[in-house]
Write a structure and sequence with these properties.
Mean pLDDT: 86
Helix content: over 70%
Strand content: under 5%
Structural class: mainly alpha
Radius of gyration: 20 Å
Low-confidence stretches: none
Order of helices and strands: HHHHHHHHH
Shape: globular
Number of helices: 9
Largest sheet: none
Oligomer: single chain
Number of strands: 0
């Protein structure tokens, strides 16, 4: 019941956050007399995909081993779409070109609302997968896998930001994607931008996730302690 309750609470919080962001976006478009920023709705929709996949994976893993085809397929799709959540950070680069001088501050608030929502959904999906890993592996091994996932997501961020590839390219143009990846790895002149982007973004996302994980664990421990105390009080009475 507790897990189901927390899942419902998460959905409510994200839905409220989405509605607030949509309200801000609507007013921003009214001020700008333009619908140029409507693309934020598409981006946050893409950011929600890994959370729904992680949720489904969590349900499937209650009945099946991770080595079964369905959990493996869901894990692959989750890894494929996870960078979309974090990629929303790059939307900050478009604020100036999409805003007028009189509305740029308010538009910054709108962008921040959508980017924050996208990041939260990505981090929540990672948290769900991390919990499943911890149930099956040692704590250090689970953390190592999480860090590798974030490193891969950071490389995907570079592919999207600098080379303009996206998650769908794995299906629509896998040959072109592999060619560009191999070209980047072979051409040492690109290493500077590659290392700067990947390491910088990895440090940014990993530190935020570590903070969120620590806070979530403290909240969970407090909830568990409160529950134990409640049971003891009932038994004593």
């Amino acid at each position: 019941m507790a897990k189901r309750h927390s899942a419902k609470e998460l959905v409510k919080v994200l839905l409220v956050g989405f509605l607030i962001a949509c309200g801000l976006l609507g007013y921003s478009m009214y001020l700008d007399k333009s619908i140029a920023n409507i693309y934020l709705l598409l981006n946050v929709g893409l950011a929600a995909i890994p959370l729904f996949i992680a949720w489904r994976l969590m349900v499937v893993l209650r009945k099946k081993l991770w080595s079964a085809w369905e959990p493996l397929a869901l894990t692959f799709l989750w890894l494929l779409f996870l960078p979309n959540s974090f990629y929303m950070v790059s939307d900050f680069a478009h604020i100036q070109e999409m805003s007028s001088p009189t509305t740029i501050f308010f538009d910054s608030i709108v962008y921040s609302a959508f980017i924050f929502l996208g990041m939260i959904m990505g981090l929540a999906s990672l948290y769900l997968v991390h919990r499943e890993l911890k149930r099956r592996l040692r704590d250090m091994t689970a953390w190592l896998i999480v860090l590798v996932v974030l490193l891969v997501a950071s490389f995907a961020f570079y592919l999207g930001r600098d080379l303009r590839w996206n998650s769908w390219s794995v299906f629509t143009d896998p040959g072109g994607l592999l060619f560009d990846i191999s070209a980047v790895l072979i051409n040492r002149s690109d290493y500077g931008v590659l290392i700067q982007t990947v390491i910088g973004f990895f440090a940014f996302v990993a530190s935020i996730y570590w903070i969120c994980w620590t806070l979530a664990q403290q909240i969970w421990l407090k909830g568990a302690a409160d529950m134990v105390a409640h049971i003891k009080r009932r038994q004593a009475s």
